[in-house]
Amino acid sequence: MILAAWQLGRMIARLVVQEVLCERAHAPSDPQECPQCGTPLVSKGLLPRQLTTLLGVIRWKRRALRCPQGCSIGQVTPLDKALGVESHQETSVELKQMACALAVFVPFETAVVLLKRISGVCVSPVAIWGWVQTIGKQAMERLDNEVKKLAESQTPEPEPMDAATAAKPLLVGADGVMVPFRPEKGSPKGRTIWREVKVAILARLNRYTARSGEETARLERRRLVAVLGDIDTLSPRLWLEALRQGVVTASIVVWISDGGRGFWRLFGEWFAGSAIAILDFYHAAQNLWKAASACLDGRTRCARDWFAKVRHQLRHGKENAVLAELKTTLDLNTLPPAAHHTLQKVYDYLLKHSSHINYEKFKELGLPLGSGMVESACKWLIQQRFKGVGMRWSEDGFNYLLHLRLAWVNDRFDALFLPETSPNV
Ligand SMILES: [Zn+2]
After folding, report:
1. How many angstroms does the Cα of residue 173 sit away from the middle of ligand 1?
2. In this structure, are residues 109 and 125 in contact, taking their beta carbons and an 8 Å threshold?
3. Which residues have beta carbons under 5 A from ligand 1 (an ion)?
4. How crowded is the C-beta side of 285, counted as CA atoms within 13 Å?
C-alpha cells in the first residue's frame, strides 16, 4: 500500500508541476527583441518540451519566439531560460545530482537500480557515468583553479566556523593508498597497474568524556585532500585546505604521521614552524622491535623482554633513556656488522624524530599517539569505492569520481550543481 501510494504521490507531483508550467507558459510575458536586428520577436505558438526528472518524465508546452526578419537566432524560449533548462538538456539537474550522489558510494550499475527504486526513473549506467565525468571534471577544474590562484598569492577564504570548533586543535596528517588502474586507455586488457593516491586529512579534535567516564577523542569537520600524483602535487592542495580550515588562527596545530614516503617533507614545508608533530607510536615501536630482533638474533625471549622494556620507556616519557641505551650499544661496537647497521639506522631514525616522540607529553595534552584516525579516514575515501572486486580505473574516470567523493565528504557536493548564475525558481 505504501509503495502504491508513493507511486501515486509521484504521479500527482508530476501533474502539479506540469500544471504550474502550463500556467507560466500562458502568462503574458514582456516583449522581446531580436538580439541581431532589434525587431520585436513574434510567437511561433506553444511548442512541446519534455524533461526527465526525479518525478519521472515531465511534459509541457511553452511559447517559442522567432525573428520575423529571418535572422538565424534559432527559436527563443523565455520560459526555458527562466527555468534554467538548456536547449538540448534531457535530464533535470536534481536527477543528475541524485544519480551522482549514489555513484559517490556505489558502482554505476547499482546506482541505476537504486535510482529506479527511489524515483521510478530508468537511466542507463552510461548516462550516470557521463554525468559523473562532467560534474567531476568541473570539480577538478575548480580545484586546479584555486591551486593556481594560491600560487599567485591569492589566499582562499577560511571556511566559516563557530568559536567552539575554532578553539579545538587542528589535526593534520597524510598517507598513501594504492589503487588499481588499467594499463591501457579504453581497454580492459593487460595487467593491472597499481598507483599510489596521496591522501591528507585535516580535522578538529574534539575531546569529551564518554559515558563510561573514559576520556575519548573524535574527529570533527573532517576535510580530505587527495591526488593521483606525487607529494609535490599534494603539497599545494594540502596547504590550500589548511588555509581554509584556519591553520593560521588555530591555537594548536598537530601533525601526525607514520614514518614514510616523504610525508614528513610536507610537515617541514608547511607546518614545522607552528605545529606539534607526532610520529605514530606504533611505527616508532616497530622500529625498536626491528632493533631488538637484529641485535638479539636467536634469543627470542630476550628480545621480547628488552622490547617490552624500551617500548614502555618510550611511551612514558623516557625516550631519552631509550636513545641513550641504543647509543651505548652502538658505541660498544660488539655487534655483528649487519646487526650494527640495523641498530644504527633505527637510532638515526629515532634521533631525527626525537622531538616527535615525546609521547607522555602528547598524552597529557590529550593528543592521539597514533595516526589510526588519519589512516582510517584516508582508507575510507579510497577503499570503499575504488577497490571493489574486479574494479580497475582509467586515470580520468578515477580522477572525476574522486573529486565528486571529495566534494561529498568536504560538504561541497551540492554547490557543484548550482548554476553559475542561478535562475532557479
Ligand atoms: Zn532579427
Report:
1. 61
2. yes
3. 34, 36-37, 67, 69, 71
4. 18
> How remote is the CA of residue 76 from the centroid of ligand 1, in Å?
12
Query: Between the CA of residue 195 and those of 92, 177, 270, what are the distances in Å?
Result: 36, 8, 25
> In sequence order, what E strands does 18-159 have?
42-53, 56-66
Q: Is 78 in contact with 44 (CB distance < 8 Å)?
A: no
pLDDT at 224 over 50: yes
Separation of CA 75 and ligand 1 centre (Å): 11
How much distance in Å is there from the Cα of 73 to the middle of ligand 1?
7
pLDDT bucket at 218, cuts 50 / 70 / 90: confident
Q: Is the CB of residue 180 less than 8 Å from the CB of residue 193?
A: yes
Amino acid symbol at 167: A
412 grid coordinates: 561541497
The residue that leads in pLDDT, 384 or 236, is 236
**In angstroms, what is the span from residue 36 Cα to ligand 1's centroid?**
5
Q: Which residue has the cell 586543535?
A: 169
Q: What is the pTM of this model?
A: 0.86
63 alpha carbon – ligand 1 mean position (Å): 18
Q: Does residue 421 have a pLDDT over 70?
A: no
Between CA 134 and CA 417 the distance in angstroms is: 11
CA distance 51 to 69: 31
**Under 8 Å CB-to-CB from 53, ≥6 apart: which residues?**
17, 91, 92, 94, 95, 121
Ligand 1 centroid vs 30 CA: distance in angstroms?
17
Q: How far are the Cα atoms of 58, 61, 121, 311, 328 from residue 55, in angstroms, in the given order?
A: 8, 18, 8, 62, 76
Q: How far is CA 207 from the centre of its chain?
A: 24
Instruction: Name the burial class of residue 266, with classes exposed (0-12), middle (13-18) and buried (19+) by CB atoms within 10 angstroms of its CB.
Output: buried
Contact between 100 and 131 (Cβ < 8 Å): yes
Instruction: Return the percent helix, strand and coil in the chain, to nearest 5.
Output: 50, 20, 30
Say how many Å lie between the CA of residue 40 and the centre of ligand 1: 8
**Residue 7 vs residues 97, 104, 197, 296, 419: alpha-carbon distances, Å:** 21, 26, 43, 73, 30
Q: 253 pairs with which residues across the strands?
A: 170
Q: What is the dihedral of CA 170, 176, 180, 183, to 10 degrees?
A: 120
Four-CA torsion 141, 147, 149, 153, nearest 10 degrees:
180
Strands (E), 324-406: none
H or E element, residue 331: helix 319-332
